[in-house]
Inverse folding.
């Protein structure tokens, strides 16, 4: 492992570095004339994924130039293939792209079922919908809670679509995990490490959204909290970060999508809905996300977008979702990947010769 030290590093700091290195089984050599580049070579003990942060945490270490010999669990070691996450009919990573679609919030049974059937027919393999909603205002619709979970269970039984739904509170993990195939950890909760640990222990797949102010490294370390619990079923989701411009709700960070695809073996998807905040931008941002290498999309869909009880401005109609699915299939093919769709009802995509089953 190679470290770079800050210019003000003292001899006493170097002694601290030697001690920490010794404790973790490394020997230290100073490289370069100013002794600010350090090579650490393992001499004894067992490599640990925590080695990197142990050195990164030292105040006089400016950065890690080259990875530790025990990569962090989310890290893509040289030559490591994509981890493919399979949930129900969906597959994310490697050659597979999948679509998650549904309303921002579960509103009522008939509407949820209508959306589920429409998005399944268009090419989605997972149904999303919040029962517990993280609303910025305490006076806004907070979701139907347990009743919403029951409606999701009914939609699952009627359509066979796997369910993605958010869990906000560690105390709700058990109830949400009874219904969900994928537990969503929202942007506001990305750094709630107690929630991440509890959700990870459910054994369910986790869809982890990037915090709106989180760096790529902080995002990956949040995923590391899940992996460190022994749960490897993590789907990273870029949903836009805070910018200065109100033209879009957030800034879809496609650069970070491309970066993450190289930095980690975990699958990465894009949520263009929360990035755009405006329905008419969801199709172009979907294309941008997939072109940057995303392994899937999560899209907010509503049959009457202007009636949606939350995030109405960004909800696309079922017809627009079908267009997005056709574009996703075409972009997948361009990259020699496949859009995975449900086995028996994928006419809009399959009839174009583009839908491929995993
Ligand atoms: C959502 O998916 O409806 C949601 C609340 O997203 P985010 O956590 O990205 O704001
Ligand atoms: Mn929403």
């Amino acid at each position: 492992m190679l470290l770079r030290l800050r210019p003000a590093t003292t001899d006493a700091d170097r002694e601290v570095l030697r001690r920490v290195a010794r404790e973790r089984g490394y020997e230290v050599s100073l490289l370069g004339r100013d002794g600010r580049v350090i090579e650490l070579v393992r001499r004894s003990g067992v490599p640990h994924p925590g080695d990197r942060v142990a050195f990164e945490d030292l105040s006089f270490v400016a950065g890690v130039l080259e990875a530790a010999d025990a990569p962090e669990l989310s890290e893509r070691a040289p030559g490591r293939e994509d981890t493919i996450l399979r949930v129900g009919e969906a597959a994310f990573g490697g050659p597979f792209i999948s679509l998650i679609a549904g309303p921002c919030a579960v509103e009522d049974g008939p509407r949820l079922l209508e959306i589920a059937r429409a998005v399944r027919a268009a090419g989605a393999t997972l149904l999303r919908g919040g029962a517990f909603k993280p609303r910025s205002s305490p006076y806004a619709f907070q979701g139907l809670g347990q009743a919403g979970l029951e409606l999701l269970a009914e939609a699952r039984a009627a359509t066979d679509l796997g369910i993605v739904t958010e869990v906000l509170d560690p105390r709700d993990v058990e109830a949400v995990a009874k219904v969900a195939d994928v537990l969503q950890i929202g942007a506001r909760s990305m750094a709630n490490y107690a929630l991440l640990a509890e959700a990870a222990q459910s054994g369910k797949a986790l869809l982890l959204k990037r915090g709106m102010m989180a760096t790529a490294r902080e995002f990956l370390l949040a995923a590391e909290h899940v992996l460190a619990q022994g749960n490897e079923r993590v789907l990273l989701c870029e949903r836009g970060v805070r910018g200065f411009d109100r033209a879009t709700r957030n800034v879809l960070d496609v650069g970070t999508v491309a970066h993450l695809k190289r930095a980690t073996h975990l699958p990465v998807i894009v949520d263009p809905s929360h990035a755009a905040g405006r329905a008419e931008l969801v199709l172009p941002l979907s294309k941008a996300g997939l072109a940057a290498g995303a392994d899937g999309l999560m899209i907010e869909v509503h049959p009457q977008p202007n009636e949606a009880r939350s995030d109405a401005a960004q909800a696309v109609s079922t017809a627009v979702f079908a267009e997005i699915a056709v574009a996703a299939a075409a972009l997948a093919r361009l990259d020699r990947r496949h859009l995975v769709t449900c086995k028996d009802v994928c006419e809009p995509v399959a009839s174009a010769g583009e839908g491929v089953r995993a």
Q: What stands out?
A: The CA atoms of residues 87 and 181 lie 7 Å apart. The longest strand covers residues 96-102. The chain has a mean pLDDT of 94.
